[in-house]
Amino acid sequence: MSEPCDGPGPGEEWGRSQRDVPLFVVGCEDDEQDMGQMEAGMKNEMFREEEMEHDEDQSPSERQIVVGICAMMKKSKSKPMTQILERLCKFDYIDVVIFPEEVILEEPVEKWPLCDCLISFHSKGFPLDKAVEYAKLRNPLLINDLNMQYFIQDRREVYRILQEEGIDLPRYGVLNRDPDNPEECNLVEGEDHVEVNGEVFPKPFVEKPVCAEDHNVYIYYPTSAGGGSQRLFRKIGSRSSVYSPESSVRKTGSYIYEEFMPTDVYTVGPDYAHAEARKSPALDGKVERDSEGKEIRYPVMLTAMEKLVARKVCLAFKQTVCGFDLLRANGHSFVCDVNGFSFVKNSMKYYDDCAKVLGNMVMRELAPQFHIPWSIPMEAEDIPIVPTTSGTMMELRCVIAIIRHGDRTPKQKMKMEVRHPLFFELFEKYGGYKTGKLKLKKPKQLQEVLDIARLLLVELGQHNDCEIEEKKSKLEQLKTVLEMKVQLTYLRNGQPKASSEEEDSKKDGPSLLLVLKWGGELTPAGRVQAEELGRAFRCMYPGGQGDYAGFPGCGLLRLHSTYRHDLKIYASDEGRVQMTAAAFAKGLLALEGELTPILVQMVKSANMNGLLDSDSDSLTDCQQKVKARLHEIMQKDQEFSQDDYLKLAPTGSPSLVNSMEVIENPVKTCDKVYALIQSLTSQIRKRLEDPKSSDLQLYHSETLELMLQRWSKLERDFRMKNGRYDISKIPDIYDCIKYDSQHNASLSLEDTLELFRLSRALADIVIPQEYGISKAEKLDIAQAYCVPLLKKIQLDLQRTHEDEAVNKLHPLYSRGVMSPGRHVRTRLYFTSESHVHSLLSIFRYGGLLDEEKDQQWKQAMDYLSAVTELNYMTQIVIMLYEDNNKDPSSEERFHVELHFSPGVKGCEDDENVPLGFGFRPASSEPNQGSLEDLSQDQPDQALPVSEPINIQRRSPMIRNRKTGSMEVQTLSQQQAAWFEGCSMVPSIYPLETLHNSLSLKQVDEFLNAVCESSSEVHTKTMKGWSPTAASVFLWIRNFSSPTKPASMA
């Protein structure tokens, strides 16, 4: 007989109570295991049968308990198994025998080594039938039941057993195909869904082979998010998945289809209280590895309910050692796969616990048979490790950012009044009269609108009068761009005529105002802006250590990868906003690959209760009055008088006053703008007539003909037939000239800079003043837009310091993490210009601070008044810090900072751009508040609020990106060459601190007061909804625009 392993007897440190034994589960399968030899402490490499026979002659008191390991060599001699067995041998009465692989494969079971306890599990190539035969022959104590391992190999059986045990599963359907007749199956595939046995699974959904050994799992994305699929597989090198443009499901084989859980996805291996997490393979497919090449995994803490699920899984499958996959989504936990015997990697404490539980189980079951004196001792409970801070250092607890989308193509719009019954029937068919709003996105619905347009064109084909011809041209345009966005508004007595699009003679009776919108999609430059800003945004977080030391911004990556970062990203339902959010997430978390998988998994569509979406055509009474007054002032053919300055700029904002000085006479300036547009369209027509340039490709695949259509439409619409100007077109004119100056400057068209200068001056008045002229109006309109968002921000700040169920790193297993208890909450809200304007108005005019009493706030307000435009990628950032040395009830316990950036820099290098005061300008000491020294894994430092304010005239953040700048610098031509058009990507203004010494109580009371006053006084007043006066909206989305169902978490 081979020698028993040396080691101390099973003392107190090796015991565990009997009730803990069934809850032993370990991490998930991984073929990339260390094949190294057994370590020196493990003396029993194999057990020879003849020694066992000799041992049978010994007296019972001298017998050892033999634990046999029957598995493929790759598993039985892996590093995790070696570590566990080495510790198992420290039990005085336990010997271990590893069955040689050649014996398992080639010898009959009668010649296999004898054992009292068998650890045997299936893997590729393992003869499970022989193991079952051996168990029947020798009848050892089985750690993992062998017959149940047949079921684990079939995902259909796994799901059936889980369902029978009452364990939560994602909604799923099973598609069984006959290999000889794969086409005969209950599968109906649509463009954005599949129907399996009569049950519909809309995309995104997961397609899993029924064979558990087949790891080729596919995730299919909806066309609204870009389509295609993510293909998961067993890790090959540093990849575990790859994105494919293929959107059709597989046509051969049997599969399980299940709904996709888009939020926090974890590969979990819980033992009695052990769970392990890694980066989701479906995100970008890149495997995160440590310096030794091992996949990085971090243990996280399980809830009580999840521990109960772990126990249920173990008992249901009769697998004492069992790994399974757990999905955490929307506050619930779902089991999506069971793997059988599997290991946790690189966790010394886990190896200790694993050996203790196994050893105690074997001794409890077999010690009485061998007359071995043994009892399970008690063990003290583990005490969690909690990090502390000292001095005036504060720990970053929460980051909230509201960000405008990136650079986009010009938005375009066409209006026409329709009265045909078919439009009313369509509106009624899809429930428009019930809610007053109607959104149609499905291809079938879009086809119905297209059919109506075609039918009307046929009916109008017999007429030749001018009125009919104009309707025909608009219907042709409707038919051409139908896949974009359409809005229908019910008008009781028709529409008062106000623009060239609506010059039809007035008719009696109700009508529908059809508004066709297209364009406005995120450009390649916009994607780069968002990704670069996301990368720079990391610098606001505490630094990293170890592999991340010395790399600016990598502290956030370390927080996130070690599950100490609670991140949620919300976006409005506009495609450009959602793609901006996905690109930002890609840069923030250093992800790779396409944006579609990132969008589907990480970005929540937040169009619930107006959180980030707003109906720009459903205005408050206040906003309608403001627009009317604004248009009246801008129609005066005379120089602005002092009275006009008081009417148009009562706040005295320098940006408004400067623009009025540039304009002087609004009508004369509009005359100049109109003449410049005429000149521009004339130049484009001449280019089109030139054979050398007629096929010229402009930025983002636009042609000269499409560019001419853009400008010709503005030329028609800006000056109406009555000679007056439509002021509502000024933002569109500025939008177009800004786009062409930025992206199509190579055309070298004349007078574009003058058109840019004048249209910008007009837009700098019209755009901000549409959100209110006086302070009271600005506050009223702002509340109508963003009270739901304010309530959500208030909730985010409150929840940060409350105990809630989040995914947290387990402190006992946190190898190499100095502060396992740190937990930072990040909430990112991506939206459009209206919400950014409104939120800024709330902070400026809602009474947060008194300018007369607070010098820092007064200087911040002066800075905001000088900002002319809230451009793409504008940011409003709120940061919450905690001083753990202060009393929990003290106002000094939580510290809030408010920061702002006006976003992308303009096309011109403006010398008069207002200078802010820097990011956290009062942080005067070298290491306090510095965003450059990011090499230490410690709580971020905040300035003690008692220190004086030291305002700097130039932002310290305008630095080279290599030093962790928050400014996104202009890319070189070589750097930008990879994206379409090779257009220059403008840099983004750095964050400026508006205030850095607010208390949480102060901010909470302010938000509460604003929300309460809105609910009592400033409720959003819409036009009355009745059968004779209604507002209905028919939205038709471009298939390529990423939209998803509403989701809140």
TrEMBL record:
Protein name: Inositol hexakisphosphate and diphosphoinositol-pentakisphosphate kinase
Location within or outside the cell: Cytoplasm, Cytosol
Family stated for the protein in its record: Belongs to the histidine acid phosphatase family. VIP1 subfamily.
Region Disordered, annotated ranges: 915-943
Pfam families: His_Phos_2 (PF00328), PPIP5K2_N (PF18086)
Catalytic activity: 1D-myo-inositol hexakisphosphate + ATP = 1-diphospho-1D-myo-inositol 2,3,4,5,6-pentakisphosphate + ADP; 5-diphospho-1D-myo-inositol 1,2,3,4,6-pentakisphosphate + ATP + H(+) = 1,5-bis(diphospho)-1D-myo-inositol 2,3,4,6-tetrakisphosphate + ADP
SUPFAM superfamilies: Phosphoglycerate mutase-like (SSF53254)
Coiled coil (UniProt feature): none
GO CC, one annotated term: cytosol
PROSITE patterns cross-referenced by the UniProt entry: HIS_ACID_PHOSPHAT_1 (PS00616)
VIP1 N-terminal domain: residues covered: 65-154
GO biological process terms on file: inositol metabolic process; inositol phosphate biosynthetic process
Domain of life: Eukaryota
Record keywords: ATP-binding, Cytoplasm, Kinase, Nucleotide-binding, Phosphoprotein, Transferase
Main location (coarse class): cytoplasm
Species of provenance: Amphiprion percula (Orange clownfish)
Gene Ontology MF terms in the entry: 5-diphosphoinositol pentakisphosphate 1-kinase activity; ATP binding; inositol hexakisphosphate 1-kinase activity
Function: Bifunctional inositol kinase that acts in concert with the IP6K kinases to synthesize the diphosphate group-containing inositol pyrophosphates diphosphoinositol pentakisphosphate, PP-InsP5, and bis-diphosphoinositol tetrakisphosphate, (PP)2-InsP4. PP-InsP5 and (PP)2-InsP4, also respectively called InsP7 and InsP8, may regulate a variety of cellular processes, including apoptosis, vesicle trafficking, cytoskeletal dynamics, and exocytosis. Phosphorylates inositol hexakisphosphate (InsP6).
Gene3D superfamilies: 3.40.50.11950, ATP-grasp fold, B domain, Phosphoglycerate mutase-like
E.C. number(s) listed in UniProt: 2.7.4.24
